[in-house]
Amino acid sequence: MQFFKDIYNLFFPELCLACATVLTNNENIVCTSCRFELPETHFTKQKNNTIEKIFVTRLDVVEATALLYYKKGGLVQNLIHNLKYNGHQEIGVFFGEWLGNEILSSNRFKSLDYIIPVPLYKKRLQERGFNQVTLFGKKLSNILDVPYKDSVLIRETESVKQSKKSRLERWQNVNHIFKLTEKNSFKNKHILLIDDILTSGATIESCYNCLKQIENIKISIATMSYTK
Ligand SMILES: [Zn+2]
């Protein structure tokens, strides 16, 4: 089998999904050099980290983390682009396994009851065919032994392009775009809300406000990446 795999790879070499160099036989998804260059935040083990500080005056979040720093033109941007637009869902699995193990060894994010993704708008989901955080969430679910629930929150409208708006406009834009489908089974539960990129926190804040309609719900946050 290895022989056929080698021949196949000769014609269709597997490329690093961060830097596009040819992967060797024992490399998977990213090359060894990228694996060590990926900019880790180390937020998972850190109390009062940058993300928790973003939310501290706005939301009552139990704990929050992001795995990597996202920079324009950087390796993480390439990975997330390949995940979202080139169908490389294995990148979500890769991030989920990495962050899941980080959480396990952190002594934080204890007593989670459910993992819930920031949902995509239905039309966007149909276009793309998948939510880019689904396999990330399922891998986290598998490693942390916490059920993954993607039916509790739905997105009612598509937010327009965020980048040229002020923070206030962004906030108004994303507020009230999510809707709850059920409340009862999440009463008194601690949920981990997950997304791909955390920027201003406006999307997360909007999901948070929606989930807070549930009695005594506790919310933690985990994203693949964070950009300043
Ligand atoms: Zn690479």
Which key phrases capture this entry?
228 residues; alpha/beta; Rossmann fold; 2 domains; 4-stranded parallel sheet; two-stranded antiparallel sheet; binds zinc ion
| Count of alpha/pi helices | 9
User: How are strands sequenced across the largest beta sheet?
Assistant: 1-6-5-2
Each distinct ligand: zinc ion
Could you please say which CATH topology of the largest domain applies here?
Rossmann fold
Instruction: Give the helices and strands as they follow along the chain.
Output: HHHEHHEHHEHEEHE
Major beta-sheet overview: 4 strands, parallel
Tell me the structural class. alpha/beta
How many domains? The number is 2
Q: At CATH's second level, what is the architecture of the largest domain?
A: 3-Layer(aba) Sandwich
- CATH class categorisation of the largest domain: Alpha Beta
The number of E-state strands comes to 6
Instruction: Provide the gyration radius in Å.
Output: 18 Å
Regions with little confidence, pLDDT below 50 for 5+ residues: none
